[in-house]
Design a protein that fits this description.
Helix content: 10-25%
Number of helices: 3
Low-confidence stretches: 7-23
């Protein structure tokens, strides 16, 4: 019956968790959480120090609540400090063998459960591991916890085998405890998670009675099963996004260089070589898509001769650019002869501004 109740509680909590929407990963750093749910514990077998008798103390199913403060170190590992409370009304109390046990204040032959409860208050340090990556919306987790368990026993009944004999206990003990944890976390926002958590708690307990015939009862507070649904919220700062990459440098602008030649010559003067070097250096600041070299002449001489001279001038400049490291595959040549003067003149005029080659660099 208890197992069935635990399954029903787990199913209901899971259904609530699954109804939440997907979200992105929570940040590292501090977080807080609260949980509430259902608690069951097997019978507590406790031995009386004075009489040596063993009694089974049944604890009815009840509720549990927890508060947690934790710190996430990375996407998978976190640690938390947990305070918890587990309720538990006392059910039947019977000796392992024989007629002993406790009843309520009813008269014989009725012997119902005595009044009272056995409750647990814990303070635990938990280490937890979240499976998967921060991009997962549903993440299983497991953990272990150690700490202390303060078990309080408060009951007032009568002895079953001794009508009229009262039995009173109101005492607590604080003992070392450990717990195993497993669950599922469902991200509902970039900072909030619904935690469906199972806890298995084990430890010792004892309590003194007011009857010298029994003395102190000692036993194990274990086989404690708790299923809770909790809300966890991260307070850690979001990681700053990486700075955007710097914008690419602007492509160099198209530019023209002009190389001047002596009369009726196609070789480079010192001044012309300097201009070619400047053009080559500029071309190498980027990746030019085309370098157009066009040769020109003045109007002295006949047109056919001038056309050949302009082609030779263009070739001389192109060869010099390649020698300076410009990719020859992007260089195009042309010769205009005397047809495109920089300065208009009559026929047969020796004009220095027209004895030239232009270098147009395009990116």
């Amino acid at each position: 019956m208890r197992v069935k109740s635990l399954i029903l509680a787990s199913s209901a909590a899971a259904a609530l968790a699954m109804s939440a929407g997907a979200a992105s990963a929570e940040p590292d750093g501090w977080y807080g959480a609260i949980d509430a749910g259902y608690h069951i514990i097997d019978d507590i077998n406790a031995e009386a120090s004075a009489s040596g008798h063993n009694w089974n103390w049944e604890v009815n199913d009840g509720w549990a609540a927890f508060a947690r403060l934790g710190y996430r170190f990375n996407p998978n590992w976190r640690m938390e400090l947990e305070g918890g409370y587990r309720s538990g009304d006392i059910g039947t109390v019977r000796a392992v063998s024989g007629p002993q046990g406790l009843c309520n204040s009813g008269t014989a032959p009725a012997c119902h459960s005595p009044e009272g409860d056995i409750t647990s208050t814990t303070l635990m340090a938990n280490v937890l591991y979240d499976f998967g990556t921060p991009e997962w919306t549903l993440r299983p987790f497991v953990g272990l916890g150690v700490g202390v368990n303060r078990v309080n026993t408060d009951t007032n009944g009568r002895l079953r085998q001794l009508p009229g004999g009262n039995f009173i206990a109101d005492d607590s003990s604080t003992e070392f405890a450990a717990q195993a944890i497993a669950g599922l976390a469902w991200a509902i926002s970039d900072r909030a998670n619904l935690d469906l958590t199972y806890r298995y708690l084990t430890g010792d307990m004892e309590f003194e009675t007011e009857q010298a015939a029994f003395g102190t009862f000692s036993g194990d507070y274990d086989q404690s099963h708790t299923v809770t649904l909790g809300l966890r919220y991260a307070f850690g700062a979001e990681e700053a996004p990486p700075p955007p990459p710097p914008p690419p440098p602007p492509a160099p602008a198209a530019r023209q260089f002009v190389v001047y030649f002596d009369f009726d010559r196609s070789n480079l003067t010192a001044e012309a070589s300097s201009v070619v070097q400047q053009a080559a250096a500029y071309a190498k600041t980027g990746a030019p898509t085309r370098v157009l070299v066009v040769g020109h002449t003045d109007t002295s001489g006949n047109a056919a001769y001038n056309l050949g001279l302009s082609n030779r001038r263009a070739r001389t400049v192109a060869d010099a650019l390649v020698a300076q490291g410009v990719n020859g595959g992007v260089i195009s040549l042309d010769g205009k002869g005397e047809t495109s003067p920089a300065k208009a003149t009559g026929d047969g005029v020796r004009e220095p501004l027209n004895r030239r080659a232009t270098i147009d660099i395009n990116f």
